[in-house]
Amino acid sequence: MTAPEREVRLEQAGEGAVLARALTDEHGAVLLAQGAVLSSASLAALRRRQVGYCWIVADVPDDVMARAQADAARQQQLARLPILFRGTPPGAAGAGLLALLQRYRQGEDA
After folding, report:
1. How many domains does one find in the chain?
2. What gap in Å lies between CA 108 and CA 110, rounded to an integer?
3. CB atoms < 10 A from the CB of 68, how many?
4. Read out DSSP for 22-79?
5. Of 7, 73, 77, 102, which has the highest C-beta tally within 10 A?
6. pLDDT of residue 21
7. Mean pLDDT for the stretch of residues 88-110
8. Residue-averaged pLDDT of the chain
9. Is 87 exposed, middle or buried (0-12, 13-18, 19+ CB in 10 A)?
10. What local confidence, expressed as pLDDT, does residue 108 receive?
């Protein structure tokens, strides 16, 4: 059974709302994945891209919201790792550390 969803104007989607469907731009590139929790930063970025509407999950239970927020935070941390290690040459000790950190952030055994 899927959670009930509804389409709302971006102004109505508040901080903490969970996306029921992925948000894409006019070229089909994913801006935010399904299940992403909207933050003030993501709402501001969507406004800059002139996104007008989004599909959100209606009546999200607290445990689902907490899990979605934790997943969103984990994804942000995971996305930041390549930036932090951008100057690391392949095969260097830092590349091994990057691989371990990525597996850890994805919830895999290191």
Report:
1. 2
2. 6
3. 19
4. -EE-TTS-EEE-TTPBP-HHHHHHHHHTT--EEEEESS--HHHHHHHHHHHHHHHHHH
5. 102
6. 93
7. 82
8. 84
9. exposed
10. 63
